[in-house]
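name: query_chain
kind: protein
chains: 1
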Amino acid sequence: MRFAREGYPFITIALLLCVAAWLMASRVGAPWTTGLAVVCSVLVLFVVWFFRDPVPRVPEDGRLVVAPGQGKVIDIREVDEPSFLRGAARRITIFLSVFDVHVQRAPVNGKVEHRSYKPGEYVVAWLDKASEDNEQASLGITTPQGRVLVRQIAGLIARRIVTDPVEGDTVARGQRIGLIRFGSRVDVFLPLEWEVTCSVGDRARVGATALARLPSPVKA
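structure:
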């Protein structure tokens, strides 16, 4: 199992606390010290699980748009996206619980031509207004078939968004593009003419589950 590099400090601290707690429990022997050691052990397991970074099974079909985040699809709707698509777009929203993989991956192959960050609030991520009000980072990717925008949105307890690519970079489907710590949401904005292949309520695996399909190339 691989782990996100951002998680190493948290995993190390949790392990040190766990070792210290069990040493204290062995020397003191009081029930509360054993209880504390057990709690620290659970904390280690949670931190290790949270920062896991599994290798995705990217679909072979190059026309499939894969999920940029892992979690539950909670909304699909037509919206106005003025920053990169500059007009009407289809927004697919994925809610990430604290038990989901929190690494984000590129949904399509393309070139990064937009990158922005906006500080904001930390309301619960499943609320629709979180897409506008919460702390967020956006990454715009241009493909031959159109533009795609991925938006990383902080949740109620998330306080750190990491976005890896910069403008001018080329990304491949399934490539890591960032991470959000501890509960969050990922929105992906697609052109209206692209076929959506997922539904509200579906579970998405990052870099593996198909959310949409690119249109067929226009024949000359």
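note: The chain has a mean pLDDT of 87.
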